[in-house]
Amino acid sequence: MKRRIVDGRPGWSAPRSGLRLQRYFHDGAWAEQMRLPTENAVPLGDIDAKDAGHWCALGSLLVPYGGFLAANLQAGEIALVNGATGSFGSAAVAVALAMDARCVVATGRNEQALNELSRRFGARVRTVPMRGHEADDRARILQASAGPIDCVLDILPPAASAIQVRTAILARVVLMGGVGMLGGDGLDLPYPWMMRNCITPHGQWMYPPQAATLMAGMIRASLIDLGHFEITAFGLERTNDAVAHAAANAGPFKMTVIAPQRG
What we know:
The chain is of the alpha/beta class and 263 residues long.
Protein backbone atom coordinates (compact mmCIF):
# COMPACT_ATOMS: atom_id res chain seq x y z
CA MET A 1 0.00 0.00 0.00
CA LYS A 2 2.96 2.36 -0.08
CA ARG A 3 3.40 4.84 -2.91
CA ARG A 4 6.09 3.57 -5.22
CA ILE A 5 7.63 4.17 -8.63
CA VAL A 6 6.57 1.71 -11.32
CA ASP A 7 8.52 1.85 -14.60
CA GLY A 8 9.65 5.37 -13.73
CA ARG A 9 6.12 6.62 -13.11
CA PRO A 10 4.42 7.32 -9.76
CA GLY A 11 1.47 5.10 -8.89
CA TRP A 12 -0.15 2.93 -6.26
CA SER A 13 0.34 -0.29 -8.20
CA ALA A 14 0.65 -1.49 -11.78
CA PRO A 15 -0.81 -4.97 -12.26
CA ARG A 16 -0.51 -6.43 -15.74
CA SER A 17 -4.27 -6.01 -16.24
CA GLY A 18 -3.88 -2.23 -15.93
CA LEU A 19 -1.14 -1.75 -18.53
CA ARG A 20 -3.50 -0.65 -21.33
CA LEU A 21 -4.86 2.16 -19.19
CA GLN A 22 -1.43 3.07 -17.87
CA ARG A 23 0.00 3.41 -21.39
CA TYR A 24 -2.52 6.16 -22.06
CA PHE A 25 -2.60 7.86 -18.66
CA HIS A 26 1.12 7.54 -18.13
CA ASP A 27 2.41 10.96 -17.12
CA GLY A 28 1.59 10.91 -13.40
CA ALA A 29 1.22 13.86 -11.03
CA TRP A 30 4.82 15.09 -10.96
CA ALA A 31 4.09 17.70 -13.58
CA GLU A 32 2.56 21.13 -14.07
CA GLN A 33 -0.31 19.47 -15.92
CA MET A 34 -1.50 15.88 -15.94
CA ARG A 35 -3.97 13.74 -17.85
CA LEU A 36 -6.39 11.47 -16.01
CA PRO A 37 -9.81 9.85 -16.51
CA THR A 38 -12.60 12.40 -16.07
CA GLU A 39 -14.44 10.12 -13.63
CA ASN A 40 -11.35 10.24 -11.37
CA ALA A 41 -11.30 14.05 -11.21
CA VAL A 42 -13.28 15.15 -8.15
CA PRO A 43 -13.70 18.91 -7.56
CA LEU A 44 -12.94 19.86 -3.96
CA GLY A 45 -13.54 23.60 -4.20
CA ASP A 46 -11.09 26.46 -3.83
CA ILE A 47 -8.11 26.15 -1.50
CA ASP A 48 -5.52 28.72 -0.52
CA ALA A 49 -2.33 28.19 -2.53
CA LYS A 50 -0.25 28.29 0.66
CA ASP A 51 -2.26 25.32 2.01
CA ALA A 52 -1.88 23.17 -1.12
CA GLY A 53 0.92 21.06 0.38
CA HIS A 54 -1.18 20.15 3.40
CA TRP A 55 -4.09 19.12 1.17
CA CYS A 56 -1.79 16.45 -0.26
CA ALA A 57 -2.48 14.60 3.00
CA LEU A 58 -5.74 13.51 1.37
CA GLY A 59 -3.72 10.67 -0.16
CA SER A 60 -3.04 9.27 3.31
CA LEU A 61 -6.44 10.04 4.83
CA LEU A 62 -8.70 8.73 2.07
CA VAL A 63 -7.39 5.16 2.12
CA PRO A 64 -8.38 4.40 5.74
CA TYR A 65 -11.52 6.50 5.30
CA GLY A 66 -12.54 4.12 2.53
CA GLY A 67 -12.08 1.25 4.96
CA PHE A 68 -14.21 2.84 7.67
CA LEU A 69 -16.94 3.67 5.14
CA ALA A 70 -16.94 0.02 4.06
CA ALA A 71 -17.19 -1.02 7.72
CA ASN A 72 -20.03 1.46 8.33
CA LEU A 73 -18.27 2.91 11.38
CA GLN A 74 -20.86 4.74 13.49
CA ALA A 75 -20.51 7.61 15.94
CA GLY A 76 -20.03 6.28 19.46
CA GLU A 77 -18.52 2.96 18.36
CA ILE A 78 -15.10 1.67 19.42
CA ALA A 79 -12.66 1.23 16.55
CA LEU A 80 -9.45 -0.76 16.43
CA VAL A 81 -6.68 0.23 14.01
CA ASN A 82 -4.38 -2.75 13.56
CA GLY A 83 -1.08 -1.36 12.33
CA ALA A 84 -1.48 2.21 13.60
CA THR A 85 2.17 3.28 13.49
CA GLY A 86 2.66 3.71 9.73
CA SER A 87 1.53 6.53 7.47
CA PHE A 88 -1.88 5.04 6.68
CA GLY A 89 -2.40 3.57 10.15
CA SER A 90 -1.72 6.84 11.95
CA ALA A 91 -4.00 8.65 9.50
CA ALA A 92 -6.65 5.99 10.26
CA VAL A 93 -6.58 7.00 13.92
CA ALA A 94 -7.23 10.63 12.97
CA VAL A 95 -10.04 9.60 10.61
CA ALA A 96 -11.79 7.37 13.16
CA LEU A 97 -11.74 10.18 15.73
CA ALA A 98 -13.12 12.60 13.14
CA MET A 99 -15.95 10.13 12.47
CA ASP A 100 -16.85 10.35 16.18
CA ALA A 101 -15.58 6.99 17.32
CA ARG A 102 -15.96 6.70 21.09
CA CYS A 103 -12.32 5.69 21.26
CA VAL A 104 -9.67 4.17 19.03
CA VAL A 105 -7.50 1.24 20.07
CA ALA A 106 -4.21 1.62 18.20
CA THR A 107 -1.87 -1.35 17.86
CA GLY A 108 1.66 -1.61 16.52
CA ARG A 109 5.19 -2.75 17.24
CA ASN A 110 6.74 0.74 17.38
CA GLU A 111 6.11 1.91 20.95
CA GLN A 112 7.58 5.36 20.28
CA ALA A 113 5.09 5.92 17.46
CA LEU A 114 2.24 4.66 19.66
CA ASN A 115 3.23 7.09 22.41
CA GLU A 116 3.22 9.89 19.86
CA LEU A 117 -0.37 9.00 18.90
CA SER A 118 -1.40 9.25 22.55
CA ARG A 119 0.35 12.61 22.90
CA ARG A 120 -1.17 13.95 19.70
CA PHE A 121 -4.78 12.84 20.17
CA GLY A 122 -5.26 12.38 23.91
CA ALA A 123 -7.33 9.99 26.00
CA ARG A 124 -9.63 8.80 23.21
CA VAL A 125 -6.68 6.81 21.83
CA ARG A 126 -5.73 3.61 23.68
CA THR A 127 -2.40 2.18 22.50
CA VAL A 128 -1.35 -1.49 22.66
CA PRO A 129 2.19 -2.59 21.73
CA MET A 130 2.11 -5.88 19.80
CA ARG A 131 4.66 -8.40 21.06
CA GLY A 132 3.91 -11.36 18.79
CA HIS A 133 2.10 -13.67 21.22
CA GLU A 134 -1.40 -14.00 19.80
CA ALA A 135 -3.42 -14.80 22.92
CA ASP A 136 -1.50 -12.34 25.11
CA ASP A 137 -1.71 -9.52 22.57
CA ARG A 138 -5.44 -10.10 22.13
CA ALA A 139 -5.99 -10.03 25.89
CA ARG A 140 -4.14 -6.71 26.21
CA ILE A 141 -6.19 -5.24 23.35
CA LEU A 142 -9.42 -6.15 25.11
CA GLN A 143 -8.09 -4.80 28.41
CA ALA A 144 -7.14 -1.47 26.84
CA SER A 145 -10.50 -0.98 25.12
CA ALA A 146 -13.21 1.11 26.77
CA GLY A 147 -15.73 -1.63 25.95
CA PRO A 148 -16.50 -4.24 23.28
CA ILE A 149 -14.74 -3.41 20.00
CA ASP A 150 -17.22 -2.69 17.20
CA CYS A 151 -15.01 -2.23 14.13
CA VAL A 152 -11.50 -3.32 13.12
CA LEU A 153 -9.45 -1.76 10.33
CA ASP A 154 -6.44 -3.89 9.46
CA ILE A 155 -3.89 -1.87 7.52
CA LEU A 156 -0.71 -3.80 8.27
CA PRO A 157 2.10 -3.67 5.69
CA PRO A 158 3.29 -6.68 3.65
CA ALA A 159 6.17 -7.29 6.09
CA ALA A 160 3.74 -8.03 8.94
CA SER A 161 2.79 -11.58 9.82
CA ALA A 162 -0.62 -13.19 9.50
CA ILE A 163 -0.53 -13.69 13.27
CA GLN A 164 -0.78 -9.92 13.76
CA VAL A 165 -3.93 -9.90 11.62
CA ARG A 166 -5.56 -12.82 13.41
CA THR A 167 -4.82 -11.29 16.80
CA ALA A 168 -7.07 -8.31 16.10
CA ILE A 169 -10.04 -10.09 14.49
CA LEU A 170 -12.43 -9.07 17.25
CA ALA A 171 -15.42 -7.55 15.42
CA ARG A 172 -16.48 -6.72 11.88
CA VAL A 173 -13.10 -6.36 10.23
CA VAL A 174 -11.97 -4.55 7.08
CA LEU A 175 -8.80 -5.89 5.47
CA MET A 176 -6.87 -3.13 3.67
CA GLY A 177 -3.23 -3.99 4.37
CA GLY A 178 -0.66 -5.96 2.42
CA VAL A 179 -0.15 -9.14 4.45
CA GLY A 180 0.53 -12.00 2.06
CA MET A 181 0.98 -9.82 -1.03
CA LEU A 182 4.71 -10.52 -1.14
CA GLY A 183 4.42 -14.23 -0.38
CA GLY A 184 4.57 -15.92 2.98
CA ASP A 185 1.76 -17.39 5.01
CA GLY A 186 -1.80 -16.61 4.08
CA LEU A 187 -4.47 -15.57 6.55
CA ASP A 188 -5.86 -18.75 8.14
CA LEU A 189 -9.00 -17.41 9.78
CA PRO A 190 -9.96 -18.95 13.15
CA TYR A 191 -13.26 -20.57 12.16
CA PRO A 192 -14.66 -21.31 15.68
CA TRP A 193 -13.72 -17.83 16.95
CA MET A 194 -15.34 -16.06 13.99
CA MET A 195 -18.49 -18.21 14.18
CA ARG A 196 -19.06 -17.85 17.91
CA ASN A 197 -18.35 -14.11 17.91
CA CYS A 198 -20.36 -13.36 14.73
CA ILE A 199 -17.35 -11.71 13.05
CA THR A 200 -17.74 -10.35 9.52
CA PRO A 201 -14.62 -9.93 7.33
CA HIS A 202 -14.64 -7.45 4.44
CA GLY A 203 -11.87 -6.83 1.92
CA GLN A 204 -11.60 -3.23 0.70
CA TRP A 205 -9.37 -1.67 -1.96
CA MET A 206 -9.04 2.12 -1.74
CA TYR A 207 -12.24 4.20 -1.44
CA PRO A 208 -15.42 5.19 -3.34
CA PRO A 209 -15.52 8.40 -5.44
CA GLN A 210 -17.69 10.30 -2.96
CA ALA A 211 -15.09 9.79 -0.21
CA ALA A 212 -12.96 12.68 -1.50
CA THR A 213 -15.85 15.14 -1.28
CA LEU A 214 -16.84 13.91 2.18
CA MET A 215 -13.25 14.08 3.45
CA ALA A 216 -12.88 17.64 2.12
CA GLY A 217 -16.01 18.52 4.08
CA MET A 218 -14.58 17.05 7.29
CA ILE A 219 -11.39 19.06 6.80
CA ARG A 220 -13.31 22.29 6.20
CA ALA A 221 -15.41 21.57 9.29
CA SER A 222 -12.17 21.23 11.33
CA LEU A 223 -12.99 17.61 12.19
CA ILE A 224 -9.59 16.74 10.75
CA ASP A 225 -6.69 19.12 11.27
CA LEU A 226 -4.24 19.07 8.35
CA GLY A 227 -1.84 20.89 10.65
CA HIS A 228 -0.92 17.49 12.10
CA PHE A 229 1.04 16.83 8.90
CA GLU A 230 4.60 18.09 8.63
CA ILE A 231 5.13 19.17 5.02
CA THR A 232 8.45 19.51 3.20
CA ALA A 233 8.01 20.96 -0.30
CA PHE A 234 10.35 20.82 -3.31
CA GLY A 235 10.06 22.52 -6.67
CA LEU A 236 9.45 20.38 -9.75
CA GLU A 237 13.06 20.83 -10.83
CA ARG A 238 14.19 19.15 -7.57
CA THR A 239 12.23 15.94 -7.99
CA ASN A 240 15.27 13.73 -7.30
CA ASP A 241 15.97 15.64 -4.07
CA ALA A 242 12.34 15.17 -3.07
CA VAL A 243 12.54 11.40 -3.59
CA ALA A 244 15.74 11.18 -1.53
CA HIS A 245 14.20 13.29 1.24
CA ALA A 246 11.05 11.16 1.31
CA ALA A 247 13.10 7.98 1.63
CA ALA A 248 15.11 9.39 4.53
CA ASN A 249 12.20 11.05 6.35
CA ALA A 250 9.29 8.63 6.13
CA GLY A 251 6.95 8.25 9.06
CA PRO A 252 3.55 9.13 10.48
CA PHE A 253 2.31 12.63 9.68
CA LYS A 254 5.37 13.43 7.53
CA MET A 255 4.89 14.34 3.88
CA THR A 256 7.26 15.27 1.07
CA VAL A 257 5.48 17.10 -1.74
CA ILE A 258 6.43 18.46 -5.14
CA ALA A 259 5.00 21.90 -5.79
CA PRO A 260 5.26 23.17 -9.40
CA GLN A 261 5.55 26.94 -9.60
CA ARG A 262 2.63 28.68 -11.24
CA GLY A 263 3.30 31.63 -13.49
